[in-house]
Design brief:
Blueprint (H helix, E strand, L loop, with lengths): L4 H37 L13 H14 L3 E8 L2 E7 L9 E2 L4 H14 L23 H5 L2 H5 L19 H6 L14 H15 L3 H13 L5 E2 L13 E3 L1 H12 L3 E2 L2 E2 L3 H8 L25 E2 L5 E5 L3 E6 L4 E7 L4 H12 L12 H12 L11
């Protein structure tokens, strides 16, 4: 074929225009691919009635929580592995990470479970094994007897929690210098610096921070993206707090434990670890927190036992990953409140009776009402005291 000069110029201009548009087209394709990838890693969605829960009952719970908890930030209900209700109190949103506070501890412990499975450490390893340089010159017999499992179960033997700065994090040396007055494994004392020591042990055993260690082993398989974890002045992930993730990430984590460590047909966590971590390892009813019914059901490996044969990870101000194995339910909650027992009481009073064994008839009107309620939530501070 022979081109005239005019035709050749027209072809050249068309090709130049096409090439100029190429980056835009590629960007669109990339955005579509990323969107599909994110959607593929999201939990599936369904209706409450399809999974044996009344939309009206969930709405009653949400309205009660909105009126009495100051203030809720988010709520997600998962049954049979599917999200059946979800809502955020504005300005919170589905894509906005939320600080986990002590719910971080359950993720911290998960890193320990994975490291044990990989042979990096043992639950009965003495804590001092990892800190020869930081240990006191003459450690007490109780300190020498303290094991990794004692840190996990908050029974390291400290009668009081070592002091630390929230901003800079605990200190390994100061933890080891704190008097160990009780025999390790026999005395429950909630101990955030003990959780920090678990994080430091992970780094000593693997050469990675807890955040780095969990990235390919937990976060990536679950589709948890953009997780951040504050570091201490010593360079360790703080462990006992400092993790920030999204509400659905909490739900995925709970679902993994509900499924005894299995995810999409793959055993991410050993089932033995999940059973141990979520079972009662130590009594905690004599602790200062034991005055609340859900704080005296026993403690596992950085997980609390609850009433109704449930277990949970939780954090300051009302962060919850609540798992009810008998009902195949996971509930994720974020909040900023001072009454965490009230949050659990609402679950027991409003939601627990609504979990039916079989699917319910579809109720489009009630489901639409629930969706409207969930879409119009606004965070509110506690009312001023009169």
């Amino acid at each position: 074929m022979i081109f005239t000069r005019e035709a050749a110029n027209q072809l050249r201009n068309t090709m130049i225009t096409s090439l100029r548009r190429l980056p835009f087209v590629l960007a669109l394709l990339l955005a579509a691919a990323l969107s599909a990838h994110a959607a593929g890693k999201a939990l599936p969605r369904s209706t409450p009635e399809a999974h044996g829960i009344s939309s009206a009952a969930i709405r009653a719970y949400v309205e009660a929580a909105d009126q009495t908890i100051h203030t809720m930030h988010s709520f997600m209900l998962v049954r049979h592995g599917q999200v059946v209700a979800e809502g955020w109190w504005k300005p919170e949103s589905a894509e906005k990470p939320h600080v986990m506070w002590s719910l971080s501890k359950s993720f911290d412990a998960t890193a320990v479970g994975l490291a044990v499975a990989e042979g990096k450490l043992n639950l009965d390893d003495p804590v001092l094994k990892f800190f020869a340089a930081e240990a006191p010159a003459n450690p007490s017999e109780n300190l020498k007897a303290m094991r990794v499992r004692d840190l996990l179960s908050m029974s390291g033997g400290h009668e009081t929690e070592p002091k630390f700065s929230i901003e800079t994090g605990p200190s390994v040396r100061e933890f080891l210098a704190h008097p160990v007055t009780q025999k390790p494994g026999t005395w429950f004392r909630y101990n955030t610096p003990g959780s920090y020591m678990l994080s430091a042990i992970i780094t000593k055993a693997t050469g990675k921070t807890v955040l780095e260690y969990l990235q390919p082993r937990l976060f990536e398989p679950l589709g948890i993206e953009g997780a951040t974890w504050a570091k201490s002045a010593e360079g360790y992930s703080i462990g006992g707090y400092g993790l920030s993730i999204r509400t659905e990430d909490i739900a995925k984590f709970g679902q993994l434990y509900l499924q005894k460590g299995k995810w999409n047909g793959r055993q991410l966590l050993p089932e033995k670890w999940v059973v141990e971590a979520t079972s009662k390892q130590v009594e905690n009813d004599k602790a200062p927190s034991g005055k609340n019914p859900d704080w005296r059901q026993g403690y596992g490996f950085q997980f609390w036992r609850c009433q109704n044969n449930a277990f949970r990870g939780d954090g300051r101000d009302g962060q919850f990953c609540l798992v009810l194995p008998e009902h195949d339910v996971v509930i994720a909650i974020t909040a900023q409140t001072g009454n965490m027992q009230a949050q659990l009481n609402l679950v027991w009073e409003k939601l627990l009776p609504a979990f039916q064994a079989k699917a319910l008839p579809a109720d489009a009107a009630a489901h639409e009402q629930l969706k409207r309620t969930l879409a119009n939530l606004v965070a509110h501070p506690a009312p001023a005291k009169k």
